[in-house]
Structure formats: structure tokens, C-alpha cells
Amino acid sequence: MIRHIWSVLCQSASFDAQTNNVSLQNILESVMVFGEPDAAHPAIVQAEIVSLWIRENIDLPAVGQMQAYYIDPNGNQSPPISLELNLSQGVFHRTRINIPGLPLIAKGEYIFRVEYQLQGDTKWILAATMPLLVLTQQPA
Fold it and tell me: I need a labelling partner for 108 at 20 to 30 A (CA). Which of 41, 72, 115, 134 fits?
């Protein structure tokens, strides 16, 4: 079994090769956009979703996959991005999903969802939700 520890939406992350520690920069909770974004004129931001996973039983290897996607303020869902969760060699596993050009097409709340499933299972299990509030301000 696999257990989700945490997921964070941030602008960037840095992984130290010697210590394997991670530094998260500019955690995203809200973004201020000047003007009114729409599908023809989206605001574009850099984002990453970094997650930490652990074996449910530390003595038993586990394999599965995770997926992340968002739902925009209009209720539209982005295509999911999937990654393997391989806890066969180690107790912990980090995943990092880079979203180089996240299009913000409306003001309001974007909900990012992280889900996982165990190898051989078809059911996705919700691990985390992260809101990103897009606020607008008219240029002066």
C-alpha cells in the first residue's frame, strides 16, 4: 500500500543532490492578474506540484501511479498528468510535476487534485486538493 504525505503547489522546487532535501519556492495560494483573463488572453504562470509518498507498511514494497489535474472556475477539467509511484527500492518517493505554462483563463478558484491508484487497481483515490485563487485588478 501507498500513503500520501503531502502535496504542494509552488512556482519552483529545488532538490539537493547530496541530502535529497527539497526546497519549495513561492508556494502558490493566490495570484493577482491585471485585467480580465479569458481563453483568448490567458495569464500564464509557472507551477509545479511536488508530492511526498511513503509505503503504508515500510517493510513491503509498493508500486502504483499518481495523477494530477485541475478544475478551472468554469468547471472545466484539464487533462491529467500521470507519473509512476515506485516504492519498491525505497520507503519514500517524491513526485514532481512541472507545469511550465499554466493558462489562467478566468478569475476565481482553480482546484488542483492529486490522486493515486495501486498497481492492478482501477480505482483512483483522492490524496490532496489544493486551491489557487486567481484575483483580478484593473490596470491604473
Answer: 115
